[in-house]
Amino acid sequence: MFQNTKVRWSVIFIVLALSIFWVIPNFVDTKNISYLPKSKIVKGLDIQGGIHLVLGVDTESYMKDKMQRLAKTFKEDFPKSTIPFSDITTVNAPRFAVVIKANSADDVEKVETYVGKTYPGTFQATQKDDGQITFSYFESVEKDLETQVVKQAIEVIRNRIDSYGTLEPNISTQGDDRILVQLPGIEDSKNA
Questions:
Q1: What are phi and psi of 21, to 5 degrees?
Q2: Whole-angstrom Cα distance, residue 29 to residue 36?
Q3: Can you point out the beta strands (E) in 6-129?
Q4: CA dist 77 to 74, 96, 123, Å?
Q5: What is the pLDDT along the chain (192 residues), one digit of tens a residue?
Q6: How is 95-115 classified by DSSP, letter by letter?
Q7: What pTM value is reported for the model?
Q8: Chain centre to alpha carbon of residue 77
Q9: What is the structure's pLDDT at 44?
Q10: Kindly report the CA angle at 89 between 88 and 91, in degrees rounded to 5?
Q11: What is the C-alpha separation between 102 and 16, in angstroms, rounded?
Q12: Whole-angstrom Cα distance, residue 57 to residue 191?
């Protein structure tokens, strides 16, 4: 294609000139020179070093707290709805759940009806026996809540890192409950 040496040398010179033009901001302050590019090439974590963190999100504590608040809500709402009960507790194993002890089998049915109407598609009765009923989140709802918590944690981390002015931080999920944070160019982890 480029059989003529003049054409070859011209193409090489043009490519070289464009490359030099593009990397000038990395070596010279170009803020006051209008015709030169302003953005520098950002070196990643592998070239310039920095901080690499893997943070864990405590989704278990979040779910435990959510169930305790739900139990408190039930304790406040049942008397208003004239649903008799003797005790409302939470359990954490095998899944997070609320256990409601009713006074009779009829009261268990009233509780189940109330929860089904008040929280449709959110809770399921996982166990019913001896005047008590256990409610837990549907698995899809529980997964959505855990995903939402991880997204909120990422947003909080991103806002804090952006306040320091770090260029191009990498913040992403790693698995179900971990967050990967990479901060190129930052050496002091105490300030990060």
A1: -60, -40
A2: 10
A3: 50-56, 87-91, 97-101, 123-129
A4: 5, 21, 16
A5: 557 888 888 899 999 988 887 777 777 776 776 666 666 666 666 666 778 889 999 999 999 999 999 999 999 988 888 888 889 999 987 889 999 998 888 888 889 999 999 999 899 998 888 788 999 999 999 999 999 999 999 999 998 888 777 667 888 899 888 999 888 777 666 655
A6: S-EEEEE-SSHHHHHHHHHHH
A7: 0.67
A8: 32
A9: 61
A10: 150
A11: 82
A12: 21
Euclidean distance between CA atoms 37 and 26, whole angstroms: 10
Nearest CA-CA partner of 101 in 83, 82, 119: 83
3-state SS, residue 171: strand
Structure tokens at 40: 């520098």
What distance in Å separates the CA atoms of residue 3 and residue 14, rounded to the nearest whole number? Answer: 17
156 — phi, psi (to 5°)?
A: -65, -45
Q: Which two tokens stand for residue 46?
A: 């592998």
Dmax over Cα atoms in the chain, in whole Å?
98
State the residue for tokens 């864990």.
Answer: 56
* Residues sharing a CB contact under 8 Å with residue 173, sequence separation 6 or more, in sequence order: 150, 154, 179, 180
d(CA 173, CA 180) in angstroms, rounded, equals 6
Cis peptide before 94 (omega within 30 of 0): yes
Q: For residue 139, what are its two tokens?
A: 């698995």
Q: Tokens standing for 83?
A: 């649903």
Q: How far apart are CA 149 and CA 155, in angstroms?
A: 10
